[in-house]
Specification:
The chain has 311 residues and is mostly helical. The chain has 2 domains: 3-53 and 289-309; 68-287, Vanadium-containing Chloroperoxidase, domain 1 (Up-down Bundle). The chain is built from 10 helices and 5 strands, in the order E-H-H-H-H-H-H-H-E-E-H-H-H-E-E. It has a 3-stranded antiparallel sheet, with helices on one face. Strands 2-3 form a two-stranded parallel ribbon. Strand 4 and strand 5 form a beta hairpin. The protein is elongated.
Length: 311
């Protein structure tokens, strides 16, 4: 038997007023009352859900901000760093070839202005809003964890891409439309134009695409061991891909912005979804742990209890 499964048995015996030690107690009535109180305390303690392990069990669900900073960092280091390096490398390649420039100069608009504009307007809420509603409306822990993962993944992706947009400051695509001159937007038809720290809300990477793929990847990572989810995973990625395509179709983003958004969003979403799945599994494992037990002992005029503590 493993030592971790051997309980530590602590036996505490309280001698009664009767027997060989009876003459050491002056007040028999007080001793009897003490014994009753002790036994009552033992029985009540048995009902308390004690947990003395170093790792406390999680509640019924984590907050969407649980592990926010840790997951933000984790999604950028280790193997995940290759996704971000890939985003930068792919962008550089698409500018140099010049795929980016050719795609912008090609007549597209296959989806129509209404669809492209609609995608732009709802692109940052169409995934996080349903997830937030599910999180607050359901009492099922599994759905709490899954929806919380989506909310966090979208939130991290939004903050990361918004920061990178300002840092890189890629020029907005000049579509010869009227934009108020006082707005600090740099526009250009040249895919090579970047204005680091000078272009408010620059285009690289695509935040709409990144948040969409972050939501899809978070859900897929959370349910990756559930075969029944695979068809739904295809739908979520298809919806995310459609969002990315709409950004290109309407010349809202350079094509490399979208590709970078896919890679960055996936890295963040998969990290968050995996973490929340681990927390959900740890919650179930913790609930199954044996808790300390208290066993009353009454023998030969002596009163006491045994406490069994797993370690």
């Amino acid at each position: 038997m493993s030592l971790q499964r051997i309980p530590l048995v602590l036996t505490v015996l309280i001698l009664a007023a009767c027997g060989n030690n009876a003459n050491t107690i002056a007040d028999h009535g007080a001793m009897k009352r003490m014994k009753k109180y002790l036994l009552t305390a033992i029985l009540l303690a048995q009902l308390i859900p004690w947990n003395l392990s170093a790792e406390q069990p999680s509640g019924p669900s984590p907050s969407p901000v649980t592990g926010f900073l840790t997951n933000t960092i984790s999604s950028h280091i280790g193997k995940n760093a290759f996704w971000h390096l890939g985003a930068v490398g792919t962008t550089a390649l698409m500018i140099a070839t010049p795929v980016d420039q050719n795609i912008v100069d090609t007549d597209k608009n296959y989806l129509g202005d209404a669809f492209d504009t609609g995608a732009l307007l709802v692109g940052n809420v169409w995934h996080i809003l349903p997830a937030a509603i599910v999180y607050w409306a359901t009492d099922t822990p599994e759905y709490k964890y899954a929806s919380g993962a989506v909310v966090q993944a979208v939130g991290i992706s939004f903050l990361v891409t918004t920061t990178e947009k300002f840092v890189f400051g890629r020029a907005f695509i000049d579509k010869d439309d009227d934009v108020p001159g006082f707005l600090p937007f740099r526009r250009s038809r040249d895919a090579r134009d970047f204005y680091p720290f000078q272009n408010l809300g620059g285009l690289w990477p695509s935040g709409h695409t990144a948040t969409a793929f972050a939501a899809a990847s978070a859900l897929t990572a959370f349910y990756k061991d559930d075969p029944s989810f695979r068809k739904f995973a295809v739908l979520t990625y298809a919806a995310a891909a459609l969002m990315g395509y709409a950004m290109i179709d309407g010349n809202i983003h350079w094509a490399s912005d979208v590709v970078a958004g896919v890679l960055i969003g996936h890295a963040i979403g998969w990290t968050v979804g995996t973490d929340f799945r681990s927390r959900y599994g740890g919650r179930n494992a913790t609930q199954g742990k044996e808790r300390p037990s208290f066993i009353p002992v009454i023998a030969n005029g002596s009163y006491g209890f045994q406490m069994r503590v797993p370690y």
